[in-house]
Amino acid sequence: MLRIKEIDDFPGYYISENGDVFSKKGQWPNIMRKLKPGISRFGYCRITLHKDKKQFHKSVHRLVAEAFIPNPENKIDVNHKNGIKTDNRIENLEWATRSENIKHSYTILGTKPNKPWINRFGKQHNRSKSIQQIKNGKTIAQFGSLLEAERETGIDHSSISMCCHGKRHTAGKYEWQYKEDQ
């Protein structure tokens, strides 16, 4: 049997354990009408509830969790176990910390970072440019990035960058240029 509970702080609105939202408000207060949720820009089902002539936008998965899933540890996130943001059945939801929710996303669901260059440095970074150190018109060293050149030579990377952009002639008594500029 499908359980339905009235939503806390919103008299006349009900939530079922499979994520359906119902209303007994309006013209026919004795008839329970199923409401159609919208989808947020993040892909979650959202519903608009009214109280004291004000609108409140609520996430359906959170309403289900608050109504049917105990939260003795006072965790703040509601995790979709199967990763489907519109599957708001009680068996697909669980309370989680923010950390647990993120770890679940990567370890269980196999989510890949949307910025694969994060935590990549030097020549491994997507915007990194190779640098050449020049003395008397000849390349004497090459570096994978500005910061790598600074670490190796002790010359400030911002000074090297200004040389590479043509705003300075030398930095640390050397000429510098991006490798692609040859």
Concise account of the structure shown:
This protein is α+β, with helices and mostly antiparallel strands.
**N-to-C order of helices and strands:** EEEEEEEHEEHEEHHE
| Structure classification | alpha+beta
Distance between the termini: 75 Å
Oligomer: single chain
Unreliable segments of 5+ consecutive residues: none
Question: Please, could you describe this protein's structure?
Answer:
This protein has 182 residues and is α+β, with helices and mostly antiparallel strands. The chain has 4 helices and 12 strands. A 4-stranded antiparallel sheet has the order 1-2-3-4, covered by helices on one side. The chain has a 3-stranded antiparallel sheet with strand order 5-6-7. Strands 11-10-12 form a 3-stranded antiparallel sheet. Strand 6 and strand 7 form a beta hairpin. Helix 3 packs across helix 4 (157-164). The mean pLDDT is 89.
